[in-house]
Predict the structure of catalase.
Amino acid sequence: MSKTRLTSSNGAPVADDNNSISAGARGPLTFDNHYLFEKLAHFNRERIPERVVHARGTGAYGSFTLSKNLDHLTIAKFLQESGQKTEVFVRFSTVGGGQDSSDYARDPRGFAIKFYTEEGNFDLVGNNTPVFFLNDPIKFPDFIHSQKKDPRTNLPNPSNMFEFWANHPQSLHQMTILMSDRGIPASYRQMHGFGSHTLSFWNQAGERVWVKWHLKSNQGIATLTNEEAEKMPSHGAQADLIEAIDKGDFPSWTVKLQVMTEKEALNYAINPFDLTKIWPHKDFPLIEVGQLELNRNVDNYFAETEQAAFAPSNLIPGIGASPDKMLQGRLIAYQDAHRHRVGTNFNSIPVNAPRCPMNTYQRDGAFAGMCPYSGKPSFQGSEANFYPNDRGEQGAAVPDSSVSAPAMPLLEDAWVGYHSQEQEDYYTQAGDLFNLMDEVQKQQLVANIVGGLSQANSSIQARMIEQFSLADRDYGKRVKRALEDG
Ligand code: HEM
């Protein structure tokens, strides 16, 4: 017999958790069933909205160990001296499916990392691909609608996907990756990660460099064909990660950076802030800076993984954004999503709370409580709730101008208005990727494309063939032939 007494949520011991109180053995229930009412009411509220994208995922804790001093590039406290170790929480996900969809969809995989640093949380909210389908955030809702279920049938609709892509050549590079043999990772452990965007570092002297983050899987890459994926259990990737960590087979990634100076960016042939493009490694080689390891599963999936709130705006002194238009859109979108999905005080939930003091003048809101790490009231103490105030001597929080980022110059003769990116070259890098593939990979790519494109109308097919041909004539020819052959 357990010595732990069952209680209701006010802490009072519960006498009976099997029988409701009723008027006689065969009689109706009575109004003093407040414990039953509490139980049913709480049950009704167990769900929060699922993420509008990346709904299906799994997370784990671990550490990032720096292997190279980066103090010449950044003042970020966790990137100063080789050997420094920082706790992380990582969540992997698919993008388009709902919470109960398959782990093995042909879909990019999210690779979101929260670094709990001593100067706040830095979130690298990336994917398993170095580029994305878009380079303007205004297209994001349209793109996602086209990839999700059809509004009438609530079924996947490949024709909608290709209708979007036919109208958006900026997607061609990422779509070529998605349709390639790399489009379905065999597990979350066996895929690379990318910050994808261009972020920035700045150092003590106020010098800024542009930075791209890469994570190379130490487990190697493994992928599935459509046929193999269909045979997998829908929760397989989640189970694989949990089991590996539980048995001490900790997955890890080698962390690398590409670095570009502000001057190099001005003169580089490719727009370094265009998320549809990579920075060729021959021009900007990968520099190894550390190891990321996952070594602890969550105790409670909902409390930790489901309530995890990652945001590209979670930046820290020494790490900043860039003029990348997509990144700018994301700086706004995520915190807004968290307020809707988790609530305004999402940052006081343990998985999201910084492991350093959180001294804000923000107050109140639903579930205002204690900061789980400092043990101080995070939102409702008796301390001053306005700034400036006369209580500096008593420890009231003040801004620290030494952490302000260097001013960012505008990169062109900047006129405020709509600036079309239609004239960008969206074909060369897609063609280069096609030409890196061997014969078997090219055949897989074409078969995967034609599987969906054959369901679209002839106008969509013609525009897609034109895009493939502009990337590489052989790419276009192969898709055309495969469509004709049925
Ligand atoms: C303007 C473009 C984008 C918008 C507006 C956008 C918006 C969102 C939103 C609203 C969520 C759900 C957040 C939540 O409820 O917690 C989300 C999740 C996510 N997004 Fe984006 N997204 C964009 C582009 C991207 C790109 C380019 C990447 C990767 C390079 C990315 C990676 C992720 C990841 C990994 C998650 C899941 C985070 C987690 O595990 O909780 N997104 N996105």
Q: What stands out?
A: The mean pLDDT is 96. The longest helix spans residues 325-341. Residues 428-485 form one domain.
